[in-house]
């Protein structure tokens, strides 16, 4: 790997140490009847959140969790509920003022394609059309979470 992206002290600003599925749930509350009665494509409501926390106090290693929930219904009849917490452990070497946007924008941007594939696979394997998430604007998501009194957070 090239050192052109390294900090002046020679370390990479963001290093993804490991990524993993922390939690995955897929429920079909009306099975098997829902598969017989389903005549139209379900409406899927999505919720997405990003959380970050230090792995050890005072260190520069953080767990970033991309949490996605998909609720599918036809009318008021639930078809499926999918919940995914996809995480990465990152070593972050940036100045404190850049920590929050790195944790809540750049890190989830790296995790997103893998979480997107898992959600598509689990919904398809569950007997429904795959849920294909559109690209997420993590900058807008991060900015929407920040209030006027938001502070730079070490534990985001």
Provide an overview of this structure.
- Homotetramer, a dimer of dimers. One homotetramer interacts with 1 SecA dimer.
- One of its GO terms (biological process) is protein tetramerization.
- This is Protein-export protein SecB.
- Its main location: cytoplasm.
- This protein has 156 residues and is α+β, with helices and mostly antiparallel strands.
- It is built from 3 helices and 4 strands.
- The protein has one domain: SecB-like (Bacterial Protein-export protein SecB), CATH 3.10.420.
- Strands 1-4-3-2 form a 4-stranded antiparallel sheet.
- The radius of gyration is 19 Å and the shape is elongated.
- The two termini are 29 Å apart.
Summarize this structure briefly:
The chain has helices at residues 33-37, 96-125, 138-145; strands at 14-27, 43-54, 61-74, 77-92.
Q: Report the biggest beta sheet as strand number plus sense, adding barrel if it closes.
A: 4 strands, antiparallel
CATH class: Alpha Beta
Mean pLDDT: 88
Can you tell me the residue ranges where pLDDT is under 50 for at least 5 consecutive residues?
149-156
**CATH homologous superfamily title:** SecB-like
- Please bin the fraction of helical residues: 25-40%
CATH topology term? Bacterial Protein-export protein SecB
Q: Give me the Rg, rounded.
A: 19 Å
The secondary-structure element order is EHEEEHH
Cα separation of the termini: 29 Å
Strand order of the largest sheet: 1-4-3-2
The count of DSSP E runs of length 2 or more, i.e. the number of strands, is 4
Strand percentage: 35-45%
